[in-house]
Amino acid sequence: MITHDILVVGGGLAGLSAALTADPRLSLAVISRVHPLRSHSVAAQGGINAALGNTEAGKDDNWEKHAFDTIKGSDYLADQDAAELMCREAVPAIYELEHFGVPFSRSPAGLIAQRPFGGAGFPRTCFAADRTGLVIAHTLYEQALRRQVKVYEEALVTKIVVENGRCVGVVIYDLASGQILPIRARAVIFATGGYGRVYLKTTNAYINHGSGIGMAYRAGVALKDLEFVQYHPTSIYPKNILITEAARGEGGHLVNNKGQRFMADYAPSALELAPRDIVARSIQTEVDKGNGFEDEYVHLDLRHLGQKKIDKRLPSVREICIKFGGIDPVETPIPIQPAQHYSMGGIDVDVRCATSLPGFYAAGECACVSVHGANRLGGNSLLDTVVFGKIAGREASNYVNGLDQRDGNEKHLLEEALAERSKVDEWLSRSGGKMAHHLLNDLKVVMSDKAGIFRTKKQLEEALVSIRQIRDDYGRAFISGRCLRYSQAIVNLIEFGYMVDLTEVITLGALLREETRGSHYRLDFPKRDDAGWLKHTLVSLKDGKQDVRYRPVLIGKYQPQERKY
Amino acid sequence: MKYTFRILRLDPAVDQSPCFQDFIYETPEKKSLLEALMDVRNDQDCSLSFRYSCREAVCGSCGMVVNGQFDLACRTMIESLGTTLIVIEPLPNLEIQKDLIVDMEPFWKALFAIEPYLFPGETRPEKGHRIDDREMEKIDQFVNCIMCGCCYSACPVVSRDERYLGPAALAKLYRFVKDPRDKRGYGRWSRVNTETGAWGCDTVFECNEVCPRKVRPADGIEGLRRSLVLEKIKGLFKRGQ
Question: What does B56-72 look like in DSSP terms, one character per residue?
C-alpha cells in the first residue's frame, strides 16, 4: 500500500508551500487532481499584500496597519490574532518568495514594486505585472523540483479515511489507470481550494468544485462561516473571466450607462478601491436600477491609462479582453459584472491549521482560520496560501514527529476504497437516471438565483428545499458507457455529492444569519448586528444531521466600528 | 451554426490504432473550442477525454492541434476558425494516453534536466535584491510561459531526436541565466553546449509561431548560444593572458 508520513492534497500555492516547509526527513507526497501548474492559483493576477513600505506613498506602512485594514475589511468577523499573525508573517514570506526566484515587478529604486488595492490604506500589493499567481506557482513548483518532492498527478481524492478518531489516509481515483485506491498517511493536509463552480457565474477554474471542503465535512470536521461568498466586482461579460482589481488599483474607473463614476454614491472616499463586497453590490445595484448596459454589466474604463501603462502593468488584462471579450481596453471600456470569486469560509482550522480531527490539517482557500472574516481584501488570498501553507507543513510535521501510534490499518483503508469503488460501479450499472452535468447545472441555477449577492429568508428557504431535492436526484445518478480511465463523469459524480453538502451548509448558514455583514447581504436584515452576530457559524455533521453551533470572534485591539470607505 | 468535429480517438487499453470520429455540434452562441468539446462530451459521448482547468489561457492544460494549428482549446473561438469542419488532434511528439490527453513526461523530463530553479548567491539581502526594472524586463516574456507544451510538440527537432531538450526548457534556462539574482556557474548551464541542447535548434521558429502566450522561445535559445560563445571567447582571452 502506498504510504507516506504526510500527504498534501492540492498542488497550488498552499499545497506547495506546505510541501516545501514540511520536515524534509519525513516521507511526503503531494497529490493533485491536475498537474500542479494547472492549479487555480496560476489564475491569480493582481498581487500579494505585505507591508514592505517600498513606495514613497507607502513608507509609513507597517504590518499592524495591514492587520487593521484586513480586520476592518472583514467587517470585524476575522479573528484578530489570526489576521495579525498573517500580516506579520507577510513580510518575511515575500522576501522568501523573492529569494526563491519570483520575478516581482520593481519600483524605480529597484525594490519589489507595490500598487494600491481595495480597502488598503497604503500601496501594499506586491506584484509581477498582472500574472502574480502564475509566477509564484511556477516558482514554488520549481523549488519542489529542486527538492524532488514526490507528486502524484491527476488523482482525485475521493474520501478522508478515519480510524479511531484519527485521520489515517485517503482514497483516490487515479485518472490515468481508472483505479480507486487507498493511500495511507500519518497526516493529511488539505489545500484543495474553493468551490466557485457551484455558481453559474464564477471567475474560478472548471476544476474548482470544492469537494475537499465537503470531504472534511463528511469526516466530521466543522465548516466555518461558509455563508460568506465573495463576488469579485469585475469579471468580463459574458465569459466571467477575472479582470484583476489591479485594473482599478492602477487607476481604472467604473462607469454606468449615464457616463457617471457611480462609486462616488457608494464609497465617496475610496471610490473604485472600496472593498470587493461594497463594489460588487454597487455594480449590481446600478445594473438593477437600469443604469447598466443590456441589463447585465457596467464599464471598466482603462482608456485614460494609455497603452504604455496597460501593456506594462496589465498585459494579461489586455490579452483576456482581446481574446475572450473581443475588445481592446486601450480603445474600448471593458464590459464587467460581478461573479463568484472566493470563499471566505471553509474547513474550520485554528491558527496552526489544525482541525478537530487529529492528523488532518487544512490551508488556503479550502480552510477558514479566520483571517478574511466576512469579506477578503484583494491581495490577501495569495498571502493566506503562502503563510498558512507553511504553517500547515510545519505543524503537520510536528504532529507526525510526535506521533506514537501505528500507521492506519491496511484492511480498513482497503475496505474504504472498495466502498468508494462500489459507488462508482452503481453509477455505471444503471441504465438511466440523472447525468452528472445535469445535476451540476441544476445546483448552479439554485445557488445563483437564490443564494447570490442579495439574499432573503424566502429565497434561502426555497434554495434549501431545492438542494434537498437535488440530493435525491443524485441518488439516481448514472454514467453512460463503461470507461473508467480519465472519466470526467466519474470525477463529477464523486465531487457532486460533496457539492450538495457544501451548498446546503452555505445556504443554511446564510438563512440563520439574520444580519448583513461583509459579503453576506440580507435584504430583510440590512444592518450589521454585533450584539447578536459577532460570531462564527460552525456547521458539522452529527449522525447524518446538520449540527449548527457558534463561536465568538476573537477580538483584540480593534473594537468593531462602522465600515466607511 | 452547425459544425462537424472530427476528433482523433484512442484508448490504448482497448484500441490498436487511433481513428477519427465525427460529432455534429450546433450552437447559437459564441463558444470556445473547450466549451464546445465539453458540450460534445456531456451530450454525445462521455468517454471523450481531454484536459482542462482554468479556461483563460493561463494553466496550460488544453493544448491541442486544431485544423493543423497548435493552440489552447480555451482561447480558440470556434467561429473564428472560418470553417464548419474542425479537425482536432492531440499534441504530437508525445504519446497519447487517451484521446486528446498526451503523456507530458518527456517534456517535464527535459525541463528538469536544465535545473529550472534559482541558484541564489551567497548574499541574501534581507530586504530583497535591488534590481533595475529593465533587468527584469529581459526575462519578462519567458516568465509568461505556462508550460502547455505546444512549442515542444511543434518542434521539428524534437520529432526527430527525442534527446533534444526542446524550446520551453531551453527558454526557461535562459530566463535563469539572465536573472540578476541567479548565480549558477557557467559550468552548470554550459551543459546545454551540445547538439541536444542549445545547438540543436534548427531555427525554423515553429516554437515562436505556436506559443499561445506570445513567448518567443527561440529568442532564449539564441540568447543561450550568444552567451555560450561569449563565455568561450572570455575563456580564450583569459588563457591568452
Answer: SSSS---EEEETTEEEE
